[in-house]
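Thread amino acids onto this structure.
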């Protein structure tokens, strides 16, 4: 038969375990909600910072285009360097700022001759199938990199005709036709770069129609940005929150995208438009999952530990109580046996006293009779002697 105390201990163990699991689930849900809220706030702040940095880079290109417009579209190489260089020192994510003028095929020889005054080895070049720099092929119009300020110091690309690359030419045509900046992403071996093209039109020329924009295009301000440096610059002054941020050009083909959609983890993804391209920012936690769940498991461990301690205490108490009860029962049994033995001894003592008294009385009677007999015998002997 199961003892009552065993049932109570089992009930306490089951209830304690259930309450511990319930506390674990509740605290885990609250912790997840807190982490989610804090992550959403921190991630949104960083997304805004990255968007602002991207917009600032676009403002730099617009400022250079405005400089060209204010200079009546006539800017000398030294003036370009003086105006543009401070932008690179203040915005470290800008790798290069270029001026790519529009050169028609009939102007090519005169343009190369004039450019060689400032750059003796200047000529229009392009990349062949082996990615080597060669003389640019003949085409209707060219967009060579002419003025260039770069933090990389790659002067060999000066004169590179952007129209020689079909992908770049498509972006140039889109910028020209829309009259708004266009960009293109370039994936290199260790980094991803973005080239933004801002069209510059002849000053005070009408550009309301597509035909007018195509006719009055003068060239492009070209900015080259480093994606990683954009993110690092945006987060430079923000407190560390253990958040990984990845920036991706969603306009790339699916096979070119490196940003895989997250599965089963906390994340925040936002999209925005920059220079005619759709960009996405993906924020994910950078800290290990174990660091996020210690509190619920601490509650579970503490609850189970407390339950075990209560169970051990109750079990020990019940065992002690049972031992005391057994000792009391045994003591009562011994006391009862002693009382019975004492009573038996008293009864035996009374019986013995009665028997002794009776025997004493018998002996007294016998002694009286014996004395009487002796007396009678003595009287008889006396009578005989007479």
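Threaded sequence (386 positions):
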């Amino acid at each position: 038969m199961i003892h009552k105390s065993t049932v109570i201990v089992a009930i306490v163990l089951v209830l304690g375990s259930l309450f511990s699991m319930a506390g674990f689930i509740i605290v885990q849900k609250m912790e997840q909600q807190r982490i989610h809220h804090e992550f959403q706030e921190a991630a949104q702040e960083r997304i805004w910072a990255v968007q602002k940095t991207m917009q600032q880079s676009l403002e730099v290109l617009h400022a250079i285009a405005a400089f060209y417009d204010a200079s009546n579209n006539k800017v000398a190489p030294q003036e370009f360097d003086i105006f543009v260089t401070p932008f690179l020192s203040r915005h470290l994510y800008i790798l290069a700022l270029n001026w790519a003028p529009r050169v028609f095929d009939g102007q090519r020889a005169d343009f190369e001759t004039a450019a060689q005054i400032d750059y003796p080895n200047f000529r229009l070049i392009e990349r062949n199938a082996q990615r080597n720099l060669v003389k640019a092929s003949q085409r209707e119009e060219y967009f060579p990199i002419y003025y260039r300020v770069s933090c990389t110091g790659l002067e060999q690309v000066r004169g590179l005709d952007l129209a020689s690359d079909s992908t770049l030419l498509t972006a140039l045509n889109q910028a020209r036709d829309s009259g708004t900046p266009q960009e293109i992403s370039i994936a290199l071996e260790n980094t991803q770069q973005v080239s933004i093209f801002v069209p510059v039109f002849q000053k005070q020329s009408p550009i309301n129609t597509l035909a007018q924009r195509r006719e009055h295009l003068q060239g492009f301000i070209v900015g080259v940005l480093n994606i990683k440096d954009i993110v690092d610059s945006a987060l430079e002054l923000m407190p560390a929150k253990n958040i990984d941020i990845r920036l991706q050009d969603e306009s790339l083909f699916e096979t070119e995208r490196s940003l895989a959609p997250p599965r089963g983890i906390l994340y925040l993804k936002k999209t925005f438009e920059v220079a005619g391209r759709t960009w996405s920012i993906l924020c994910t936690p950078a800290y290990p999952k174990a660091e996020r769940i210690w509190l619920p498991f601490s509650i579970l461990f503490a609850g189970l530990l407390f339950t075990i301690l209560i169970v051990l205490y109750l079990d020990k108490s019940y065992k002690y109580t049972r031992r005391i009860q057994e000792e009391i029962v045994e003591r009562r049994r011994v006391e009862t046996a002693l009382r019975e033995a004492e009573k038996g001894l008293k009864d035996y003592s009374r019986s013995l006293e009665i028997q002794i008294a009776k025997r004493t009385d018998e002996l007294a009677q016998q002694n009286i009779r014996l004395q009487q007999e002796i007396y009678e015998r003595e009287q008889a002997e006396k009578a005989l002697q007479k």
